Fold this sequence. Notes:
This protein is an alpha/beta fold. The chain folds into two domains: 1-30 and 69-99 and 359-476, Aspartate Aminotransferase, domain 1 (Alpha-Beta Complex); 100-345, 3-Layer(aba) Sandwich (Aspartate Aminotransferase, domain 2). 43% of the residues lie in helices and 12% in strands. It has 14 helices and eleven strands. The strands form two sheets. Strands 1-7-6-5-4-2-3 form a seven-stranded mixed β-sheet, sandwiched between helices. Strand 4 (226-233), helix 9 and strand 5 (258-262) form a beta-alpha-beta unit. The mean pLDDT is 93.
Amino acid sequence: MDNKEFRKYGHELVDWMAGYLDEIRKYPVKAQTKPGEIIAQLPLSPPRQGEPMDAIIADFKKIILPGMTHWQHPGFFAYFNANNSYPSILAEMLTAAMGAQCMSWQTSPAATELEERVMEWTAKLVGLPGDFTGVIQDTASTATLCSLLSAREKYSDFKINEKGFAGGNKYAIYCSTEAHSSIEKAVKIAGFGRESLRRIDVDKDFAIIPAALEAEIKKDKQAGFLPLIMVAACGTTGSTAVDPLGEVGEICRRYDLWLHVDAAYAGTGLILPEKRWMIDGIEHADTFVFNPHKWMFTNFDCSAYFVKDKGALIRTFEILPEYLKTKEGKQVNNYRDWGIQLGRRFRALKLWFVIRHFGVEGLREKIAAHVKWARDFAAGIEAAPDFELLAPVPLSTICFRYSPAGIKEKEVLNTLNARLLEALNGTGKIYLTHTKLNGIYTIRLVIGQTGQQETDVKEAWELIRRTAARELEDTL
């Protein structure tokens, strides 16, 4: 392909992208394909000769597109959002065109310095204290792993990096029973072993019980373990429960634990000043992460990771073979030493585009609307005699179930709600996912997709009610 062809197909695909986003409601939000349907249409071997771009694009539309779940669809209420927006897409296009590998200042000075400044902006956006320094990671899972590794090294005087775990301390790591699965994965990858993870009980609102945390820490100390790190949830995955950071932080300070705050989804809500209560006690935290690629209208992947002791982070990860040495040295940030990856994408560009395009007030307006719609949806659930709200709604995640009169058995209700979820997703109009809270099958509806309107939320509620009534008829 020469530049002329590239220009032709580039224009064609941009037109297609604009049309796709403009007409996205015509697609079923959740892919309606069956397992194996897509791969059966793909040749077993690669083509011997290059194929024309027209044929490749045609197959994209014919084979790939029908098998895609449309995360940018206004009917997407599943998991947590992985949003994009027009400015973010444009920035991604520029990033792809430049094809820069931004591992160090010298490999792309603008990428490094823009990241430094944009992370300063982002810290101010969410109300973090000035002693935090930011870096962009790919996901919150990676950021949490970085936090565990940094704590491991700092508390071992950086000896585990040198000598391994042989003859060392038996560490203990803490989180709530509602905390994200990435914590368990990080514990395994970091070499602590799954048995070192303590899952602490939660209260009726699914937030960690501080007294239970302290009791477990005391028990571990008496048993010869070294309590190392507590991972607090600012918005659990199941229900967006918020751990009481002030009380947890005081316990961590008292027993000298590293405190990491996982705000992967909920962190964007901190852009609203009235939601800053969620990080009361943030002064006790050592590290903090949230994902602009969830609720801040920035293409995946872009995770904002903040540390108090950047020296500990760098010392944990830095490695300097001869081919990476540059004359700038300590004068600049070389973000290759601030995480696991050596190679780094130019993620700061899309975040810069998004913040500048929306502005602080624009971001607040959009996020506040999502929170209001969630509050209204929850009020509708509470007012409906045959539905039940199962968790508080601090932000824009609503956890509920269909609970018609006359059916009391938990397992019968669980089965009914599982069928309701499948029926709703089968319509192609909305996409929801579930969790279990106290053993109760719970339907989750998350508001926050970039293009959603209040009418989309109201229509989802009406569809849920109609579908639930039909499912009940089939049950009786």
